């Protein structure tokens, strides 16, 4: 894929960009199989592929430049900014939103944060697109409340310039450290959540909710989990690290009971909103630490779905799964290396099917989901 940013060495985030997409995909498949095949005999299904362009539903843009002319893009090691508003990973609806957002920051007189002097206010623009509707959620990451009133006062103009803007919030990140957002979120719009639609199901994203950055591939991932749940005939399902409920809601049909567990109370509110809109009986969600076996209900499910962070589910949860009466396991991972480590801790489960979901084209990263069943005693 041609990219002027890459060719001019202004951005090298897409490390595999010079390789043709089929070559990239084959390399990611080979890497995943090298990690997982030593664990057992998998039936590898055809990979779920991605568009090469316009596939990202979320943009994270560092703010630099001046108070009169904010610049959205990336920063180098010393804080110099590069404009990335024409990055072809973003769909047109996101690209077209950057200029109105920059104008809004200038109108509100929000000083870009300077890494060198650790002064200024505006750190990041976090923008999410609901692709089925074209609606947007914009989060401004600011150092303090200093410009909050000006941002609030200028917001009607932003809504006029961006008719699709549904949710607007300010996130406060006072610390000077290598993170993207802080703990305090101030929603400035009437709407509290962005309604996304995946495979006909509503998923509500609030400002701090997690959702996969590639909607098309995420849709394939959810459909695969639904198919596996149907194939094993599971009547009771738990979804650990359930987020806004994507796996749980997709697997609700055919199951008598579905439980989603997630530490984020905000995500659980979203999941329950989707459940109620769909009128799914037998589906419930609770706030708990999915990594802590001590917080699990006492009756094991037939099927367990886990979708953990990159670090994986870890020793304690693997030990609990191994000693449980769970019959089937679906494990979705954005880090095949930690996936392989966790599966090696589950010798009581027989590998069945595996599939790569190409969530992150032009990089070496991939999402891999696997189905396992408990070995006969």
What does this protein look like?
The chain has 377 residues and is an alpha/beta fold. Helices cover 28% and strands 27% of the residues. It contains nine helices and 17 strands. The chain has helices at 4-7, 21-36, 92-107, 148-161, 215-232, 246-250, 265-278, 314-323, 336-344, and strands spanning 43-44, 58-65, 70-75, 81-83, 122-130, 135-142, 165-172, 184-187, 194-198, 201-205, 236-240, 257-262, 283-287, 303-306, 328-333, 349-357, 367-374. The strands form three sheets. It has an eight-stranded mixed sheet, sandwiched between helices. The protein has a seven-stranded mixed sheet with strand order 4-3-2-5-6-7-8. A hairpin with a 4-residue loop joins strand 5 (122-130) and strand 6 (135-142). Helix 3 (92-107) packs across helix 4 (148-161). The longest helix is centred in the middle third of the chain and has 18 residues, at 215-232. It starts with a helix and ends with a strand. The mean pLDDT is 96.
- Runs with pLDDT <50, length 5+? none
How far is the first residue's CA from the last residue's CA? Answer: 51 Å
Q: How many distinct beta strands?
A: 17
- Mean pLDDT rating: 96
Q: Give the neighbour order of strands across the main sheet.
A: 1-16-17-15-14-11-12-13
Percent range for β-strand residues: 25-35%
- Report Rg: 22 Å
Sheet having the most strands:
8 strands, mixed
Q: How many helical stretches?
A: 9
SSE order in H/E notation?
HHEEEEHEEHEEEEHEHEHEEHEHEE
Structural class comes to: alpha/beta
Note the overall shape: globular
- Into which percent range does the helicity of residues fall? 25-40%
